[in-house]
Specification:
Blueprint (H helix, E strand, L loop, with lengths): L1 E14 L6 E3 L26 H10 L3 E4 L23 E3 L4 E3 L5 H10 L3 E6 L6 H12 L5 H8 L10 E4 L14 H18 L4 E4 L12 H10 L5 E8 L6 H4 L2 H23 L6 E9 L4 H4 L18 H16 L4 E6 L9 E3 L5 E3 L3 H10 L2 E9 L2 E2 L7 E2 L1 E8 L4 E8 L6 E6 L10 E9 L18 E2 L7 E3 L3 E9 L2
Parallel strand pairs: 1-19, 2-3, 2-11, 3-6, 6-7, 7-8, 8-9, 9-10, 10-11
Antiparallel strand pairs: 1-14, 4-5, 12-13, 14-17, 15-16, 17-18, 18-23, 19-22, 20-21, 20-23
Helix pairs in contact: 3-4, 3-5, 5-6, 6-8, 8-10, 10-11
Length: 499
């Protein structure tokens, strides 16, 4: 099989916002307790954060982390996680039917984010609480005034503001599973009023309004339009959430999930731009795809876990090789929309549907999905280029004309390289890949492939474990001529530009 990928350096999509490589930590399962935080662990630092976990997180180069939820935030009182730990309340947590100790809150998490070389994307509770709580937590985190909540922060040992600049107006408020779920109009009115007072406290912050919990929701579309019509002038982003799985055990179908993500993004963009035109506004609302991942492996086993535990092992999906291919392809799709998708959060970061797993009291290890995220985050910085791919297609029962090869080209920040991220969805055939850089290249200036890293495996269901890594990057030999990408593989190809 042959394919041709063509990019033009003059025809770019947009400069990539680094926040597209964000992630997510929720007070859920072992994400916090036993994940990033374990005071008794041999690698724990002065605040109880696991250094071995921090080191692996830094390999992912995550610039922003959404916190503290997720469903958790809709019943959360942020004050519970501040001040002396011995005075913090232990509470029933109704989103995940667990016990929340509040040992970690915004006081600790903002410091963890600094140590992880990241920033906080803070969510406010628009479930059991509202605009008052929202303005107060912004004051606590960001204000230098001689006022109650800014002084509370000082009394808790933090003289300087935390400086959190990106905020979520609640979480999945359309979902019946959500604590104090809302109708589209109820949420839109509350979100708009919260947004107003939050920006009155700190006009430098950016706000993300909740979109639908997924494109399968009954109110999808109506929800987006209602929220935008009400909140347009006071928000900056609209959120998207979507998870993907292979419940039907149809790998050929599963490998096309990036097409569904692309359609979801485009539909929401069309609604955003329709409301923009309706309002005759010059303002552009961009997107925050702040929950995305593969999630389906753990759903049945979670039903067996008893309620009211501290940090029970919830949502601990063990990912296989085909999951890694899908995650790599979803990242390609996000980059194709870099002009409007400015923030994206892989949900989540540690233990809970995560690329990183830990043993409580023990080791840390990398899941299969760790690697496509790591390489795309590390090398997908710069400018996303419009990328055309000429290749064959295949059909499934649900979807027709699925391209065997999908990819994106990114021009590096220094302009000296173009990095291609490519997936071959064919189960049987390797693909001889011709790279066309346009603008008379390579005939005029020339280029050379300097690195080709691939994820390849004969067993689509192969998983990594703490004991053995079955799926890991392969450094491919660089040869003259076209690049060959193996069947069912994900690839990163670095091309050095000629002088």
């Amino acid at each position: 099989m042959k394919a041709k990928i063509r990019v033009s350096r003059e025809n770019s999509i947009a400069k990539i916002d680094e926040r597209i490589y964000g992630s997510f930590i929720e007070h859920l399962g072992r994400a916090v307790y036993g994940g990033i935080y374990e005071p008794g662990h041999e690698t724990a630092d002065d605040m109880g954060f696991r250094q071995d976990v921090l080191d692996v997180i830094k390999e992912l180069n995550v610039p922003i982390v959404r916190y503290p939820g997720g469903n958790f935030v809709s019943g959360y009182n942020w004050e519970d996680g501040t001040g002396p730990k011995e005075k913090r309340p232990k509470k029933m947590e109704l989103a995940w039917f667990s016990i929340e100790t509040n040992e970690v809150g915004i006081d600790e998490f903002q410091e963890w984010a600094k140590r992880a070389d990241s920033q906080v994307m803070m969510a406010v509770n628009l479930g059991t609480r509202g605009a008052d709580e929202a303005r107060n937590v912004v004051e606590y985190c960001n204000s230098e005034t001689d006022t109650y909540y800014a002084n509370m922060r000082r009394q808790n040992g933090f003289e300087k503001p935390f400086g959190i600049k990106t905020w979520c107006l609640g979480n999945e408020m359309d979902g019946p599973w959500q604590i104090c779920a809302k109708t589209p109009r109820e949420y839109a009115r509350l979100a708009n009023e919260a947004a107003k007072v939050m920006k009155w406290v700190d006009d430098s912050i950016e706000l993300v309004a909740c979109g639908s919990s997924g494109d399968g929701m009954e109110t999808f579309g109506e929800w987006e339009r209602t929220v935008l019509e009400e909140c347009y002038d006071n928000i900056d982003y609209l959120s998207l959430h979507s998870y993907y799985g292979n419940l039907e055990e149809n790998t050929r179908e599963y490998l096309s999930q990036a097409i569904a993500m692309d359609q979801f993004i485009q539909t929401v963009l069309d609604i955003c731009d329709s409301v923009k035109a309706q309002k005759k506004s010059d303002k552009v609302i961009n997107l925050s795809f702040d929950e995305w991942n593969v999630w389906f492996h753990s759903k049945e086993q979670d039903k067996e876990i008893p309620k009211w535990q501290i940090a029970p092992p919830l949502l601990e999906d063990i990912y296989n090789f085909e999951d890694a291919l899908v995650v790599g392809n979803l990242m390609i799709t996000l980059l194709k929309h870099a002009d409007r998708v400015k923030i994206a959060c892989l949900a989540q970061l540690v233990n809970v549907i995560a690329p990183i797993m830990t043993e409580t009291g023990g080791r840390v290890w990398k899941q299969t999905i760790f690697y496509p995220f790591m390489y795309t985050s590390r090398y997908g910085r710069g400018t996303a280029l419009h990328t055309d791919c000429e290749c064959g297609t295949y059909d499934t029962e649900k979807r027709k004309n699925i391209p065997y090869v999908d990819g994106i080209g990114v021009e590096s920040e220094d302009g000296k390289e173009i990095i291609f991220f490519v997936v071959n969805r064919s189960m049987e055939e390797a693909c001889e890949l011709e790279l066309d850089l346009g603008q008379g290249l390579p005939d005029v200036n020339g280029f050379r492939v300097v690195e080709h890293v691939a994820l390849e495996c004969d067993d689509m269901k192969a998983c990594n474990t703490v004991e053995k890594e079955m799926v890991s990057p392969i450094e491919k030999e660089i040869k003259e001529g076209n690049v060959v990408v193996e069947p069912h593989s994900w690839n990163m190809i670095r091309v050095k530009m000629g002088e």
